[in-house]
UniProtKB/TrEMBL annotation:
SUPFAM superfamilies: NAD(P)-binding Rossmann-fold domains. Its cofactor is NAD(+). One of its GO terms (biological process) is D-xylose metabolic process. Pfam families: GDP_Man_Dehyd. It is a single-pass type II membrane protein. Keywords: Cytoplasm, Decarboxylase, Golgi apparatus, Lyase, Membrane, NAD, Signal-anchor, Transmembrane, Transmembrane helix. One of its GO terms (cellular component) is cytoplasm. GO terms for molecular function: NAD+ binding; UDP-glucuronate decarboxylase activity. This is UDP-glucuronate decarboxylase. It comes from Stagnimonas aquatica. Pathway: Nucleotide-sugar biosynthesis; UDP-alpha-D-xylose biosynthesis; UDP-alpha-D-xylose from UDP-alpha-D-glucuronate: step 1/1. Residues 1-297 form the NAD(P)-binding domain.
């Protein structure tokens, strides 16, 4: 079962699981996901789709749970912050309850946001984070932190077999084109020939992982020996400033866009970079796709979205 399976990362995961011969139950309430993301899977004989909100209990027969359901971009998770916390916390309780009943392994899509605005670079899993508990990002950051707590308490108290991945910025085809995440923002602005918005000086850095690399990491963690619970960082340690990213996007889209600067949003981390030594050691995993290569693969998707949008408008 993949919760959030109609979302960006979830839909790639469903595809990969089907490709290796698994049966996949995709559970999603379509809050940020879309049928378009899984359209090509709907007729697959081993794929099943269930519209369900994981804040409600779920009784199904499954043998592995990937828990990805949760809006991931600030625009979406701040739109209904109470629901965001409920999805992380009530959702984790419901999915862990199901894992306990089914005696099955459960994977949690946690996030680098548990490190907040980190004072340690790069961030190892042993770093406890620097998180504002009452800010605009807290519904997401603290929700995910509480979900991790629940995973480890179900593990210690009920012997549930858990796998917790801390995911760093990921990009690729099927990302929501208008959700304010930096890669999709820059590509859309460049393709539309609009100015590219840089917050602050643009010297804050991020590391970007291509979605295929991430999904490979998910599956390796899920299939790892029971002793490996995580939390384990999954991300690409290559570090780029926002200015460098914007320039690369402009080059690859052959755009004439200029850069415009706007004030930094509150609690925006200055630097975020994963320490992936644990993933290398325990999972023999590291990202293979460079930013240039990944952007080259992702850009055609956004071009297609724009073409379809134009067709819809024309129609
Ligand atoms: N994309 C990233 O860079 C990134 C980074 C860190 C962590 N993550 C985590 O990975 C997971 C997937 O992220 P994504 O980028 O694919 O986001 P996404 O918004 O594309 O996908 C999330 C999916 O969860 C569904 N969903 C939300 N609330 C739900 C609920 N209550 N019940 C059922 N379904 C629900 C949405 O409809 C959507 O299909 C999330 O848990 C996110 O926090 C993503």
């Amino acid at each position: 079962m993949v919760t959030g399976g109609a979302g960006f990362i979830g839909s790639h995961l469903c595809e990969r699981l089907l490709a290796r011969g698994d049966e996949v139950l995709c559970v999603d309430n379509f809050y940020t996901g879309s049928r378009a993301n899984i359209e090509s899977l709907l007729t697959h004989p081993r794929f099943e789709l269930m519209r369900h909100d994981i804040t409600m209990p779920l009784y199904v027969e499954v043998d592995q749970i990937y828990n990805l359901a949760c809006p991931a971009s600030p625009i979406h998770y701040q739109f209904d912050p109470v629901q965001t916390t409920k999805t992380s916390v009530h959702g984790a309780i419901n999915m862990l309850g199901l894992a306990k009943r089914m005696k099955c392994r459960i994977f949690q899509a946690s996030t680098s946001e548990v490190y907040g605005d980190p004072e340690v670079h790069p961030q190892p899993e042993s770093y406890w984070g620097h998180v504002n508990p009452i800010g605009y990002r807290s519904c997401y950051d603290e929700g995910k932190r509480c979900a991790e707590t629940l995973f480890f308490d179900y593990h210690r108290q009920h012997k549930v077999d858990i796998k917790v991945a801390r995911i760093f910025n990921t990009y690729g085809p099927k990302m929501h084109p208008n959700d304010g995440r930096v890669v999709s923002n820059f590509i859309m602005q460049a393709l539309l020939g609009r100015p590219i918005t840089i917050y602050g000086e643009g010297l804050q850095t991020r590391s970007f992982c291509y979605v295929d690399d991430l999904v490979e990491g998910f599956m390796r963690l899920m299939d790892s020996p029971a002793g490996i619970t995580g939390p384990i960082n999954l991300g690409n340690p290559g570090e780029f400033t926002m200015i460098e990213l914007a320039q690369l996007v402009i080059e690859l889209t052959h755009s004439k866009s200029s850069l415009v600067h706007q004030p930094l949003p509150p609690d925006d981390p200055k630097q975020r970079r994963p320490d992936i030594r644990l993933a290398k050691e325990k999972l023999a995993w590291e990202p293979k796709v460079s930013l240039r290569e990944g952007l080259t693969k992702a850009i055609p998707y956004f071009e297609q979205v724009l073409r379809q949008g134009r067709r819809a408008t024309a129609a």
